[in-house]
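Structure tokens please, single chain.
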Amino acid sequence: MLVIKTKTFSQLTTQELYSLLQLRSEVFVVEQDCVYQDIDGKDQKALHILGYNNDILVAYTRIFKPGDYFDKASIGRVVVAKNKRQFKYGNAIMEASIKAIKTYFNESTIKISAQCYLKRFYNNLGFKEVGAEYLEDNIPHIAMIKNN
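Here you go.
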């Protein structure tokens, strides 16, 4: 089971911040072999959605209100620990993130920049591709929108 916490940047403890940066680095830098600037100055504007299993951070996203990242509300840095992906925590953290956008921002249209290999995952959550594929940090991505 995934226990969800939603926090602003200033509400994060140093341990929570360390854990989320460690998880993002494990997956986006090491596992995906992608050198990029993860600490991008946007975490301070984001709401952080943290998913815990047995008090260990195993899933995470950050969400933004319209205008703070894209023109629409958005979800980014979607990540699940490699050894926990079989438990569908990706679905759980995304559903919590979609709900948080509605609760905290009163928004129902969400834009994401999705890695192309995850299109079906996001389609199953109600996102639809818009526009052409593009490279972001040398990884194929596509913009996707969800309207509720």
